[in-house]
Amino acid sequence: MAASASIASMFQLQEQTALVTGGTRGIDQAMIFALAEAGADIILRDPTADTTKHAVEKLGRTASIHEADLSSSAFVTALVPAILKDGHKIDILLNCAGVQRRHPSHQFPLEDWNEVYTSRDYHLKHTHSKQVLQVNQTTVFTLCRDVGAHMLEHKPSPAGRRAQLSTWYLYYISKAG
């Protein structure tokens, strides 16, 4: 039992706060609930996340919403400073917001495929495609950079700091985009 107790202690997130970019349904919402069940407080950025916020609070954790339009670089750049100004800290960053198109594969419109998967030059000429790149790629980079800077400025808690940023990930999205 000592081994499972030590493994369980690795997942204790008391006194940790997670900034989550998505989370209103599906696996994103399940990840938020798992963080809350492990003891983390949650900062949501989606203004439609009231149901998720209330569910987190029912788990005994604090939840707040800091609205930000992830398709706007200006809003994304202002998000972390606004959260910190409000007295929050950020120990965990969960970048799970994304823009995608869903259709049965045999009915997938070529226009939607091109919108998400064509070259960067195409995206720069089409407003909605720029939003796809902004949310799926630039927002991830910007928040990892800004939250990472915050984490480096502050002493880690006993559980340490957590952030996602992989240079391999950035390499692959640049090749795909």
UniProtKB/TrEMBL annotation:
Q: Which UniProt keywords apply?
A: Oxidoreductase
Nucleotide-binding is among the record's keywords? no
Q: Name the Gene3D superfamilies on file.
A: NAD(P)-binding Rossmann-like Domain
Q: Which GO terms describe its molecular function?
A: oxidoreductase activity, acting on the CH-OH group of donors, NAD or NADP as acceptor
Superkingdom field: Eukaryota
Protein known as? Uncharacterized protein
Does this UniProt record's set of keywords contain Oxidoreductase? yes
Please state which protein family the record places this protein in.
Belongs to the short-chain dehydrogenases/reductases (SDR) family.
